[in-house]
Specification:
By secondary structure, this protein is of the alpha/beta class. The chain is built from 20 helices and 8 strands.
Length: 464
């Protein structure tokens, strides 16, 4: 059945301002829900001082930053505002933000900047966000009995593979029980929550995405849900490095999962799929682009290390342009509470360097031997599917459309987009519990494998 993708809400989101209003301006106060008659935030020098502190920490230095704030004055102003600001609408939307956006906007507009930074950077915000998801489990289990039973079954069959010393460096492995082996899904988690928005790169645990394993196991695919260091324990590059370490650990422990069984038809083998949701989709795509970058630098068409070689890349509601998303977060008034800015390096230059599609385009522009680069991109960039909800107010859908356009301009042969009428968490929930996402992903894997056989993709020479 045909679905109308252009709705008043999707059109309004597409018209969102590409740049954030200046800090302290009336427009900025309106967008973030603050009282436009006067700011009662702390002075901006606290923000600058703390950012310098985190930048030094990222470089291995230590700084001693003192914070001062008149809390009594702020509370008095907060009471005077009468909470009208919670209903302040999007600049283009005719309705107020949803409850999750209101809560995050409220925190960003009322808490002192120094407090936001401190709790963002010492892991307190991560603990609170993950705790909210954990505390909601009983109500979710009561409302979804079949999903709860499936979750317990998956938990009983889970195998944990450690790949590093940090407590987050592990993989939850789920192996199919049938004799047929059709490939593997390497899933990169983030955090699922309708309550607060803006915790990407700094929150989430693999168990929150455990139900994503079910449809793939039923299709004969093994599933690896990868844990990795989230901010402040790891910055974005650390997270990509963790994914690489996890891929090597899986290839070493389960080498049979990395290759098609002898005698199996190409159409029955779905290959190895790199998949992620939200910021997980971002670091998954960045991992794929960094692999291409290393091959271009070394002038080779396959990887050197013993690792997993991904045939497919699936991004669900992903953030692919960090600079644009920072502006979008700023328009929502959550850019200081969100871990994205420090996790991605604070500067526009760093934001662009960690934006995978932009990084691939810059790589192609830098190199002179264009023909060889085209060959490497065609061989090593996985078949790509990007899925996004048109009513996503956390990561706007044009993040996907922009990334897909750039990837195709770089010569990526298989890069398809699919848009749904839903919000940010709904895309992955419909994969877990059944729905349009599950059908889209499984059908695409089968169809893409048939249109571009896995055997055509470049792999390193076999050691046998």
């Amino acid at each position: 059945m045909h679905e109308e993708l252009v709705t008043p809400q999707s059109l309004a989101l597409s018209l969102a301002a590409p740049r954030a209003p200046p800090v302290g301006s009336t427009h900025r106060h309106l967008l973030s829900g603050k009282d436009p008659r006067g700011s009662f935030l702390t002075h901006h020098h606290h923000e600058i001082a703390h950012d310098i502190h985190i930048q030094k920490k990222q470089q291995g230095h230590h700084a001693n930053v003192q914070y001062h704030h008149g809390l009594h004055r702020r509370v008095q102003k907060l009471l005077e505002s009468n909470f009208v600001k919670l209903q302040m609408p999007h600049p283009h939307l005719s309705f107020a933000p949803d409850s999750g956006d209101r809560i995050t906007r409220y925190l960003g507009s009322t808490l002192p900047i120094w407090w936001q930074h401190r709790n963002r950077d010492d892991g307190t915000f991560r603990s609170i966000s993950d705790g909210i998801v954990t505390s909601s489990l009983p109500s979710i289990a009561f409302a979804n009995f079949n999903a709860s039973r499936n979750f317990l079954k998956l938990t009983a069959n889970k195998v944990t593979l450690k790949y590093g010393r940090h407590k987050s460096q592990f993989v939850d492995m789920f192996l199919p029980t049938g004799e047929e082996r059709r490939g593997l899904v390497f899933f990169v988690h983030v955090r699922i929550s309708h309550t607060t928005k803006g915790g990407a790169w700094g929150t989430g645990k693999p168990w929150m995405y455990r139900l994503c394993a079910s449809p793939f196991l039923e299709a004969g695919l093994a599933v690896a849900i990868v844990g990795y260091r989230t901010y402040p324990d790891g910055f974005v590059q650390d997270q990509v490095d963790d994914l690489e370490s996890a891929a090597k650990a899986i290839a070493t422990k389960y080498p049979h999962l990395a290759r098609k069984p002898n005698g199996q038809n190409d159409e029955d083998w779905l290959g190895l799929t790199l998949m992620g949701h939200s910021s997980g989709a971002h670091i998954a795509m960045l991992m794929a682009v960094e692999r291409i970058e290393r091959c271009v630098i070394n002038n080779q068409v396959y990887y050197d290390a013993d690792t997993l070689y991904f045939n497919n890349l699936i991004g669900l509601s992903g953030v692919y342009n960090i600079s644009h998303h920072f502006d979008y977060e700023a328009c929502r008034g959550v850019e200081e509470l969100s871990p994205m800015k420090p996790a991605c390096g604070f500067t526009r230059e760093s934001f662009d360097h960690l934006s995978p599609a932009i990084r691939l385009r810059r790589l192609l522009h830098k190199k002179v031997q264009k023909g060889n680069i085209d060959e490497i991109v065609n061989k090593l960039m996985p078949n790509t599917l990007l899925v996004h909800g048109c009513h996503d107010s956390t990561v706007p859908f044009f993040s996907t459309s922009e990334a897909a356009s750039i990837l195709r301009s770089c010569g990526v042969e298989v890069c398809q987009e699919y848009y749904m009428i839903c919000g940010h968490p709904d895309v992955v929930i419909e994969l877990m519990l059944g729905g349009k996402t599950r059908k889209i992903v499984l059908d695409w894997l089968q169809d893409t494998t048939g249109s571009r056989p896995i055997s055509d993709l470049s792999l390193p020479p076999s050691k046998s």
